[in-house]
Amino acid sequence: MATPAILGLVVFFVLPLGAAVVISFTDWGLLSSPEFIGLDNYRAIFSDPLVGKSLGVTFYFALLSVPTGIIGALLMALLLNQKTRFNRLFVVLFYLPSILPVVAVIVVWLWLLDPSYGLVNQGLEKVGLPTLDWFSDPNLVIPSFVLMNLWGVGGSALIFLAARRGISPTLYEAASLDGAGPWQQFKAVTLPMLSPVILFTLVIGIIAAMQTFAQGFLIGSGSGQSALFFNLYLYQRAFQGGQMGYASALAMLLFFITLILTAITFRSSSLWVFYESRQK
Amino acid sequence: MTTPELTQGVHEVAGLPPQRPTRKARRSTGDLVRHILGRATIYALLIIGSLAALLPLFWMVSTSFKANSEVFKIPATWIPEQFTFEYYAEALLGTSPNFIRFFFNTMILELLIIVGTLLTSLLAAYAFSRVQWRGRDLVFGATLATMMVPFAVTLVPLFIGWSKVGAIDTFWPLALPAWFGGGAFNIFLLRQFMMQIPKDFDEAAQMDGASHWYILRYIIMPMVKPALLVVAIFTFIGVWNDFLGPLIYLTSNDNYTIALGLTSFKQTYGTQWNLLMAASVATILPIVIVLFTFQKPIIEGANLNPGLKG
Q1: Contact at 8 Å (CB) between A101 and B240?
Q2: Residue B143: which of A9, A200, A258 has the nearest Cβ?
Q3: Which residues are in the ABC transmembrane type-1 domain (chain A) (predicted)?
C-alpha cells in the first residue's frame, strides 16, 4: 500500500538527490554530454563573486524577514486569542494574505509601492514624510520584500494561535495568584509554553527564506544585483546559462548551508526552548 | 494537554461548581475603566490589522475598475469615479495572454493533482500508521526528511530526467509526482489523524477476515474524511499558487497556468495597472472564495503543524 509513496520517494527524491551529487562533479550543458571534472565546480564557486553576492542578499533577507515574521505572527496570535466578537472573521481576514498566489501578491505590491503613483508613497507624502523608491532603490529592495513578507505572516500566526489556545488556563491562574501581571504572565507562561512552536516556525522560516526565489525573479531586475537571491542565481545558471553541473554544485552548497543553519538552530534550542514533559 | 478538562472533571467529582475566573469579584470604577480601555484597544488593533490585510486588496479591486485617466490620478481615488468593466473584458477575454486558457490548464492540473494526492497519500498514511512492515519507520523518516531539503537540490536532476523522456512543456512533471505519495506533509497529516483511531476497529475487522483494503475503505476512510477535505483544500491552494513548477516545466504560453500566466500579463501590460489588477483580482478570487467557503477546515487545518506539539 505504501508502494506508490515509496516509489515516489525513490524516483522523485532519493535518485535525484544522488544524481545531483554526481552532476555537481560534471560540466554539463544540457545539449552536450556530461564531462567529469571532479571538484572544479566547487573551486569555481569560491572564486565566483556572484555566489558571495547572492548569498549575502539571501542572508540579509533571512536575517530581516525571519525575526520580524515571527514577532509579527506572535503579536497577531496574541491579539486573535482575545475573546472578541467576530473572532472567526478576524482570524480569516488576518490569514487571507498568506494564502494568496505569490505572483499576484508581488504585482499588487509593485503597484502599492510604485515610487510616483503608489498608495504608500501618496500616504507618506500626505502625512509629511519623505517618499521612498522601494523596489527601485537598491538599498531598499530587500526591506521592501520584508515589508511584503510581513503582510503574509497570517499562516504562522494561526500556528501560534493554536498553540496559545492549547496552554492550560490553570497556568495563568496560578501565575495570577502569585501576583503576576500581564507582562510577567507573558514572560513566564506564554513565551516558554510557545517556545517549541517558535523553534518549529524558526526552522521552517529559515529554510523557506533561504529558498526565496519568486520575489527576486519578478521584481529584482530593476535594482541590479541587490535582489539577486541565491536561488535566482542558481536558476539563471541552470536554465538561462544551461550549466547543469555548476547549478548542481550551487544547490549542494545551499543544502549544506541550510543543514548547518538548521543544526545551529536546534543546538541553540536547549538554551531557550522549554519542553513541558522534561520538567516533570 | 488535557489539563483543562481534567480540572473540570475534578471539580465535578468533588461536587464543586465548575471553575470560572471570578469576573464579578471586586470591580471598582477604576477596574471598569481599565477594562473598557483594554477592550477598546483590542478592537482597535484588530480593526487596524484587518485594514492592513484588506487595504492592498481593496486598492487592487479599486484600480481594476478605473479608466486609464484615473489610474494615475493624484491624489488617488479610493472609489473609482467611473466604474468600467472594460479592463476585465480586455484582460480576461483576450487571446494573448489567454486567461481562459490559463484557467482551464490550471483546472486540469488541479483535478489530476488533487485526485492523485488524495489517493496515494491516504494509502501511504494507512501503511505508515496501521500496517507493520520492515523498514517502515525508516521510510517514514525519509519521507519527512524530504520537507527539509531545499527544492533546488533535486531540481536539476529532475529537470534533466523529464527532458530525457520528452516531457518538458507537458503536465506530466507537475501532475505525475502527486500520484506517488502526494507530498510528505499530506502523508504526515493523514497519518496523525489515523493514529488517533483506536486499533480495536481494525483488529475486530481483521478477526472477521477483512483485508487491509476493506478496512481502509470502509472503516478508516469514513473516519478521516475531515482530514481528507483539509488535504484537498490545501492541495487546491498549493496547485493554484505554484509558480516555480510551471515556470520550470511549462515553456509555451498555451500551457501556462494562472499563476505563471500572470507574469505574461506583467510583461505584456507593463504599468497598465488597471489591466494588471483586473487579471490579479481574477487570479486571487478563487482562493478568496475557497477560504470563505471552507473557513472552518482551513483554519483548523492551518493549525496542524508537523511534529512539535504534544
Answers
A1: yes
A2: A9
A3: 55-265
